[in-house]
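Tokens in:
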């Protein structure tokens, strides 16, 4: 209360203060549709964190986007992905790209001003912010676990958002103190990798190329023999036997999932059960097609027993009498699918329970030039998480540098059919390259896929010691693909 010349005047907040209070209230009271957001340049360290945390993140409403290095001239035309408006996000993950522990002030201030709480990896130079009051700070190893705990605790998150917004409204420091810069300089070290000179640089690639040629010739002969036997025994080189569950005939699906199966007797059950879980109460109406590509192990019998156990679920098993390769098997499944949306799933992969729903919702909301949606796929082997695939934004300029989209993408079936499906070795596309060729075809037709910022699946990699035949003599394969898709912006 102020007294002036005997008159009592109330100390009423100024118009500016009242307006600021109203704005802050509106920001804090907004309904937010994203629980956990992430947007940063793609680095191995960040990818590993999300891969390790995939089992925690899949059930939350996430918007996780990695951007590419725009300092690379090849990527200058690539538009960075952006996470949903910070005003629509509850918590924003902030992870260091490398060893430098500097605080990302620009990103943090933007988040604070929008009522979004930042969950940051342990940093330096964050004063006057107070960890636990204005933002969450945690070590790399437990950052996601503590972020998820904060997402569960909305009162705590809301209190942090309010405290941070109030501090942002009062004015934030524009520069870091000198001692912080000194600390950053002392802690930031760049590791130099020692590269040993290659030995016999000409001999080894030549030998591998010759071995690959011999292997492919033998594979082609084996497939030709199997097709001939099928023709003699069944009158059709592409003969199939079909077994379906009782629920199959009358089911009207929204999504068809196709599993191309070949010698995966140990893993196919997990894959099938993950599809069933992803089409549960909250998932889309889904049918399952298993195409056994003439397995030489017990895969087909395992699949038959699975169908007997899930007779209540709409599923069918298509057993091929001759091996044709993954592209042929997927084409058989896609052509037999009845839904308007189709997804290929490797027999060593599994869907997260919300995966199909996230992909379908994204595709239904997408414009007509979007032929498919893809989400983040965790890569793993017997040692644990290895990294991510399908985590980068769609761009033709990025695609011609190498494939980055996993097969577990949801296609509009009509668009897939109009593009001719997966190209096979008979079309000049080697086994293992059919996915990449299809994405190149999408880009060449000036269509695109759209990234969904959620973890949707896991993919099991073979042990590192096993070399995929498709990884041998990659240069010659790229030349073939360049000839097949000449209109793309290939690097010179």
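Residues out:
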């Amino acid at each position: 209360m102020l007294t002036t010349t005997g008159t009592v005047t109330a100390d009423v907040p100024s118009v500016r203060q009242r307006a600021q209070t109203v704005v802050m209230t509106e920001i804090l009271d907004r309904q937010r549709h994203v629980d956990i957001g992430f947007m940063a340049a793609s680095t191995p360290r960040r990818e590993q964190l999300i891969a390790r945390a995939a089992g925690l993140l899949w059930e939350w409403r996430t918007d996780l986007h990695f951007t590419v290095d725009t300092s690379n001239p090849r990527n200058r035309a690539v538009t960075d992905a952006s996470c949903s408006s910070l005003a629509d996000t509850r918590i924003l993950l902030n992870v260091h790209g490398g060893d430098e522990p500097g605080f990302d002030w620009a990103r943090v201030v933007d988040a604070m001003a929008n009522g979004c709480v930042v969950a940051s990896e342990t940093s330096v130079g964050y004063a006057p912010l107070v960890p636990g009051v204005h933002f969450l700070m945690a070590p790399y190893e437990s950052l996601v676990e503590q972020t998820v705990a904060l997402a569960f605790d909305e009162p705590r998150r809301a209190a942090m958002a309010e405290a941070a917004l109030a501090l942002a409204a009062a004015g934030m420091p524009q520069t870091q103190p000198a001692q912080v810069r000194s600390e950053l300089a002392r802690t930031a070290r760049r590791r130099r990798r020692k590269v040993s000179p290659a030995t016999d640089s000409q001999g080894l690639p030549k030998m591998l190329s010759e071995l690959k040629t011999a292997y492919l010739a033998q594979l082609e002969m084996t497939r030709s023999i199997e097709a001939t036997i099928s023709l003699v025994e069944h009158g059709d080189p592409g003969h199939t036997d079909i077994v379906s569950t009782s629920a199959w005939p009358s089911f009207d699906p929204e999504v068809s999932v196709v599993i191309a199966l070949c010698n995966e007797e140990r893993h196919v059950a997990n894959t099938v059960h993950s599809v069933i879980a992803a089409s549960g109460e909250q998932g889309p109406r889904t049918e399952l097609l298993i195409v056994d590509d003439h397995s030489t192990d017990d895969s087909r019998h395992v699949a038959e027993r699975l169908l007997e156990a899930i007779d209540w679920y709409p599923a069918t098993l298509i057993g091929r009498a001759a091996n044709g390769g993954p592209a042929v098997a997927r084409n058989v499944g896609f052509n037999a699918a009845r839904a308007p949306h189709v997804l290929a799933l490797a027999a060593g992969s599994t869907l997260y329970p919300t995966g199909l729903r996230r992909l379908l919702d994204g595709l239904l909301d997408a414009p007509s030039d979007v032929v498919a949606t893809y989400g983040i796929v965790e890569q793993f082997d017997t040692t644990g998480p290895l990294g991510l695939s399908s985590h980068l934004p769609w761009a033709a300029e990025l695609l011609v540098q190498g494939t980055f989209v996993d097969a577990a993408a949801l296609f509009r079936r009509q668009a897939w059919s109009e593009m001719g499906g997966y190209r096979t070795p008979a079309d000049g596309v080697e086994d293992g390259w059919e996915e990449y060729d299809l994405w190149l075809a999408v880009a060449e037709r000036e269509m695109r896929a759209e990234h969904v910022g959620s973890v949707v699946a896991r993919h099991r990699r073979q042990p590192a010691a096993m070399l995929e035949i498709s990884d041998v003599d990659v240069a010659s394969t790229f030349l073939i693909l360049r000839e097949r898709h000449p209109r793309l912006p290939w690097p010179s």
